Q: What sequence folds into this?
């Protein structure tokens, strides 16, 4: 297990992108100790470069906008009789 600097995007749309010194536990998982708690993240929720994290956050933003647009369309089409 090795420690590395990572960027975490799991909650990018609510709290932003977090930077952490995490321990790699497997090829696709890292753990991060913070405030006495251990957090586990799996790919694609953590990244080795800031650029990868920013690209993932942008994908998440676009997907959320599409989801909300779809929900709005459904609500606008809803008719009560």
A:
């Amino acid at each position: 297990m090795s420690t590395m600097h990572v960027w975490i995007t799991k909650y990018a749309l609510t709290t932003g992108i977090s930077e952490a010194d995490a321990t790699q536990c497997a090829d696709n998982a890292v753990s991060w100790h913070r405030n006495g708690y251990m957090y586990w993240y799996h790919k694609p929720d953590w990244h080795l470069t800031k650029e990868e994290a920013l690209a993932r956050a942008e994908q998440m933003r676009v997907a959320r906008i599409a989801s909300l647009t779809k929900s709005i369309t459904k609500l606008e089409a809803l008719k009560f009789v």
